Amino acid sequence: MIVRRHFLIRGIVQGVGFRPFVYQLATGLQLAGWVLNDSRGVEVEVEGPRDRIDLFARRLRQEAPPLAVISDFRTTDLKPGGDAGFRILPSRQADLVEAQIAPDTFVCEDCLQELFDSGDRRFRYAFINCTNCGPRYTIIQGVPYDRPLTTMADFPMCPDCQAEYDDPASRRFHAQPNACPVCGPRLELLDGAGQPLSGDPVERAAEQLRQGRIVAVKGLGGYHLAADARSDRALEILRRRKARDEKPFALMVRDMEQVRALAFADPVEERLLTGCERPIVLLRRRPDARISPLVAPRNRYLGVMLPYTPLHYLLLESFEALVMTSANFSDEPILYRDEEALERLAEVADAFLTHNRRIHVRADDSIARVMAGKALLIRRARGFVPRPVLLPEELPPVLAVGAELKNTLCLTRRDRAFLGQHLGDLKNAEALASLEQVRAHLESVLDIHPEAVTHDLHPDYLSTRFAESLDAMPRIAVQHHHAHLVSCLAEHGRTGPAIGVIFDGIGLGDDGTVWGGEFLVGDARRYRRAAHLMPVPMPGGDAATREPWRMAVSWLQTAFEDDWPDIPLVRSMDEGEVRLLRQMMARGLNSPLTSSCGRLFDAVAALCGLRDRVSYEGQAALELEMAIDRDRVERLYPWTLSGDDPLRLDVRPLVRGVVEDVLACCAAGEIACRFHLSLARAVTDVCIRLSDRTGLKTVVLSGGVFQNRFLTEALSGCLESRGLEVLRHSLVPPNDGGLALGQVVIAGTQLKMRRESPE
Fold first, then answer.
1. Which end of the chain is more exposed for a tag (fewer CB within 10 A), N or C?
2. What is the pLDDT of residues 473-509, one digit of tens each?
């Protein structure tokens, strides 16, 4: 019996070879019909015997191209039309845009073979790609995803490339970035003043790197600063010029064999490294790793990624590993425009390995680690954006603009949330301009028209002021830690309620104080502060985040009052400064109260003698974790619980225990381990108390502190051993990079409740 069936397929199905796959599948089964792209996704109609069409439908889902992600698959039976043959029709614009844009992806094995095949016409061509790989998100200017709406519109195809593009049997059929040395983008090497250098650009750039020079390399979503990972001299120069004293650099390593020579990688970490997203993965460094200690000072981990563009593979022929750090300054967005890179990096880079394919929207490298056997994104950007997060229910369209640090934005469309790429810290005009650009870009390519904008409760964040500038939309302020709780719930497809352990640096509480050590009970509709760490003064306000010794002073005064112990940190302090800080705290001058767990970590790191000042955010807490040299200790530090609603976790006894160990000359590694395990047990006690009171058995862990692997795994084990379910982040960062997801779900839920409530 001859039948006809219509298919509407939504998801990441454009720019990933889906139409040629459909064409080959249909013609192989001798079915008639057509396939096309529209702004909703891919439409297909096939006609033929019912059993073949049923087989076509099964294989359509089971054998989709490797980069395709099907989120919706709908079929409708139609009357046969008597078609002859199968055709690929031109793309068309539907009334409703629902297509999802594919992320940029690494160069595939087929293209790599051609890249190094001396007989291939694309031999050593740095822009080789096909429907299975190459740039996507960073070159797209509109939908449907066709060449005229990408930055490849600047490069008309030669006859050979056009023939591949038009051939349904070709791997490059409708590969929008398709190009070759005759018609496509070209590399160029410039000196530090922006003047062209003669010779092969890749070979000359490699020569510069071997001589210890710094080369700015234009990639998929912006510029990297490259240096020889074995050269102390090169990295000293790079750190000095970039004003990056101690923060770790990322490494790009030639292949997995070289990765294993530098670091330990378990099977989950190897899958992360070799996946199509190619993030930077944090791996335990081997003691005998042959790289400069200046790559990651005082850190047991290395941030490692594999090459992901043809240019990277060509450049790494001469090196086992290169430092590849984002070309930016002080957590600004990555530089991606050629003119701006040449101007701002003139005093940093000795040469520029660049090209003439425009980057339409910037995208930094993603960063991930494995925690408790599961991948955890710390920075969500290239390779993952703009993949959506599936929400547990449909919500009105809302724009969320995140907070101040590690800013991202988020947009919703029914039951999908689209997190934008990491932008950096919103502390300057460049970052704010980037936020506006990404907002406009995502709203355009996703055809989302937000009904409201949501932002952090803090009135002075630039993200809040940005939201206020959008006069046409109503604004919804969301408390910082509530957004963290809901972000994790939404990632897991849960509507709650749950107990939320939200530990981070700072966030404005609904009582006007600085929160950061919170135990919330709630969901997207509502929350309450059920418990928190004991608040202490933060002398000097923001200065205390840069100078952990100030938080040590606060906790010493809180735990010992005026009878301070004679520990090395106290002896090293300036008496005048200490006297001033004591007066400030006593009078409440520029010393806001904070329950921040992040600041508690800072204090303990300073008390142990590990770090009294930091050069980057989170450094003291990181070095406290890195100091741990054992898995267990014989005893724990004490703590107490007081109050009723909310409960207060009093860690003054814990701080006194740390000081006693310092006086007893215990090693910093032992103190660090005991502190982490004691905190995990104390948090577990609070959660058990709250579970008994509320009947809730699910605990959410969110906030930047839960990037700490030792604490997170120890706490998860404690909670699970007491019969509680633990929800942790995975594809959404636990830090403020995931905050916009929580904001958008809370605001969308509020809008939905208002519509559903009776007048």
1. C
2. 999 999 999 999 999 999 999 998 999 999 999 999 9
CA distance 278 to 304: 10
What percent of the residues of the chain are helix, what percent strand, and what percent coil, each to the nearest 5?
35, 25, 40
Beta strands in 549-683 (DSSP E): 593-594, 640-643, 647-650
Q: What is the reported pTM? A: 0.90
- Regarding whether 191 and 163 lie in a shared domain, the answer is no
What is the average pLDDT value for the chain, to the nearest integer?
A: 94
Long-range contact set of residues 673-676: C-beta below 8 Å, sequence gap at least 24: 673/628, 673/629, 673/630, 673/631, 673/632, 673/633, 673/710, 674/633, 674/635, 674/636, 674/637, 675/604, 675/624, 675/637, 676/625, 676/628, 676/708, 676/710, 676/711, 676/714
Which of 632, 651, 679 terminates a domain? The answer is 679
Same domain assignment for residues 173 and 194: no
Rounded CA gap, 412 and 593, in Å? Answer: 35
pLDDT tier at 332 (50, 70, 90 boundaries)? confident
Tokens representing 95 are 């009334």
Q: Are strands 593-594 and 250-253 parallel, antiparallel or unpaired?
A: unpaired
Q: How many domains does the chain have?
A: 4
User: What does the alpha-carbon distance between residue 665 and residue 671 come to, in Å, rounded to a whole number?
Assistant: 10
Q: Are residues 195 and 279 in the same domain?
A: yes
Rounded Cα distance between 27 and 459, Å, is 60
128 and 251 belong to one structural domain? no
Tell me the residue range of the domain where 250 lies.
Answer: 187-368
Question: Residue 598's domain is classified under what CATH number?
Answer: 1.10.357.160
CATH number at residue 82: 3.30.70.100
> Is residue 629 pLDDT above 80, yes or no?
yes
According to DSSP, the β-strands at 452-456 and 498-508 are unpaired
Residue 17 in domain? yes
pLDDT, average across residues 185-194:
97
Q: Taking each helix axis as running N to C, give the angle between helix 575-587 and helix 548-560, from 0 to 180 degrees, rounded to the nearest 10.
A: 70
Q: What is the 3-state secondary structure (H, E, C) of 165-230?
A: HHCCCCCCCCCCCCCCCCCCCCEEEEECCCCECCCCHHHHHHHHHHCCCCEEEECCCCEEEEEECC
